[in-house]
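REQUEST ID: PR-0412
SUBMITTED BY: lab tech R.K.
PRIORITY: routine
TASK: structure prediction, single protein chain
INPUT:
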Amino acid sequence: MENKDRKQPMPNSNHPLMSKLHRLGIRQGDAVAIRSENSVQFAKMALSCWQLGAVIIPVSTRYPSRKVLSTLDDLSVHAFFTSRDFKTVVPKTESFFINDFVGGGSTDWTPDPYDKNKFDLQANASLIMTTGSSAKPKAVLHTLENHYFSALGADDNISFGPGDKWLASLPMYHISGFSLIARALLHGGTIVCPAPKQPLVESIRQYDMTHLSVVPTQLIQLLEDPACVRKLKTLTAILLGGASLPLSLIQKAMALELPIYRTYGSTEMASQITTTSGKDWFDGNDSTGQPLKYRRVKLTLEGEILVKGEPLFKGYVSENSIDLAVDDDGFFHTGDTGCFDAKNNLHLTGRKDSMFISGGENIHPEEIEQAIGCIKSVEQVVVVGIEDARFGKRPVAFIKTRQGRRFDSGRAKEVLQDRLERFKIPDDFLPWPQDFCPFLKPNRSEFQARATELIRPKRPRQ
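STATUS: complete
OUTPUT:
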């Protein structure tokens, strides 16, 4: 992906950041990595790189130094920008503090819309690492056109423009947070970036906003704070995605009449694929909604969700090659499973690769997670299957409890007997690992490895 022509002239622009980046030798096609908490500096850097034709690589702030180095090396990064909040690594490429190039101080960023920026929509725009259930993240390549049509279709359902403010509550190294940049560029909406590491509850209280994106565990925390609930009721839209929703959370949010929009998306489709309308939610629709504009969704006979459309990524990048990763009809196989109802609303049922067999019975972790999620002390749960000498595999649950609550595993097993077949009730309940991120889609491979470390494979019962 590296562009060998170092003599490209500086584009006609009075933008000082573009000039600085051009003097560093950043040219069209170059990969520029950013490791930073959500910030105005991050958004401004991304915009300037796109104006130069460079490709942005958001690097997870949770990566250890060794993983940062391997990511930069694998993707042939030309320049690496990091905030001062992180321990400095010394990559093989040039590295800089982002604060030295972009002034700080502001929490709001309102860009000029697409039509005022001289973008080449066909140009490669970003390489975002997947954070799904796979063991090793993949580098997902999008063009500016992919991001543009993703934003355009989403805006048709939830408008976001001048006067609107969207709180950046999900990390910009993830597609759910990164996509806000494209949304703001569509019509000139404002992104609000809270202070690094500020609890979301405090951010909701402090900042002026009209839009918010959250995952279920965040919404659970917010609904326990009366001041946050009052603020949430005033918003235009609350976009809710990222994981399965406990029934109790759905019922509570509906009773409060919050402007919830449930969504299903993926990194490969540049964020949202299906999203409910406000009316769907208040009508009691528990689906993830209908496909947005510029998306096509269909199901295989086995129920796997296939997608295509203008937001669909260009391919996976590795060692300067691009894997298109689509079938002969141009559809991407998500690995997620679901079904459509009579109104063409998509209901998620799980993932193909998460199902396991225990004693000859198929077990879908999502079903168990849904049941455990209804227990009041549970904030988040992940279920995995670990090796068992007698049954092949048995379910184990990791539990993140709500603040101030205690989880009673014995009582939980009693409650689950009324909701699950006996063989689906987890043998063990483990505490949520402190070094695992509680918010985004779980990496089941990591949870499975941790469970195997903590629990020895069981011997056959006599």
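NOTES: The chain has a mean pLDDT of 88.
REVIEWED BY: pending
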